[in-house]
Write a structure and sequence with these properties.
With 176 residues, the protein is mostly beta strands. The chain is 14% helix and 47% strand. The protein has a single domain (3-46, 54-169), classed as Lipopolysaccharide (LPS) transport protein A like domain (lipopolysaccharide transport protein A fold), CATH 2.60.450.10.
């Protein structure tokens, strides 16, 4: 798997964790075209499953309905199927209607799916901008290969990613 493809795959799973709920109401326009970021997107349709429940555990949950935020603190674990996100802290910003606008995950952020993993100090999902930003020494790992940089950004609608000050290490796998 190429470095760019690897980052794209891992970042898509991060999106999947948090936006499944928000995308549940997304629909195709009358012309039948796919709406970027909707559950009909070819990129996301391979991993989104409405049948899989999302489980969030944390030592503490603070919901502030006036501020439209929910803060999860202490050993935050988000699971859906084979995808797991770990963080020490996570804050969800939502509208009066309950639509997610932004999600911040901080301290010891780790996203795991099968043999793929992204670690960083912070990850922020911006729904309106359709992007996820990983900062704080982000490192994407698959097997023996790693991609690291100062900042990793995944643009959901255009299906592209950028890594600032990138370093890619591709090691040959042992075996047949």
């Amino acid at each position: 798997m190429s470095g760019q493809s690897f980052i794209k795959t891992l970042l898509v799973f991060f999106v999947f964790l948090f936006v499944t709920e928000a995308m549940a109401g997304a629909q195709k326009p009358d012309d039948g075209k796919v709406v970027p970021g909707s559950t009909d997107s070819p990129l996301l349709s391979a991993v989104i499953s409405d049948e899989e429940p999302v489980e969030i555990t944390a030592e503490k949950l603070i919901a502030d309905n006036r501020a439209h935020t929910a803060v999860f603190e202490g050993t935050v674990v988000v699971r859906q199927g084979k995808i797991t996100l770990y963080a020490d802290w996570m804050k969800v910003f939502y509208s009066e209607a309950g639509d997610i606008g932004k999600i911040e995950a901080r301290r010891n952020v780790k996203l795991v799916k099968d043999a793929h993993e992204i670690t960083s100090g912070e990850a922020i999902y911006y729904k309106k901008l359709q992007k996820i930003v990983f900062t704080g020494n982000p490192v994407a790992t698959e097997g023996n290969s790693t991609i690291s940089g100062d900042r990793m950004v995944y643009y959901i609608a255009s299906d592209r990613s950028e890594v600032e000050n990138s370093r890619v290490i591709i090691k040959k796998q042992n075996g047949p």
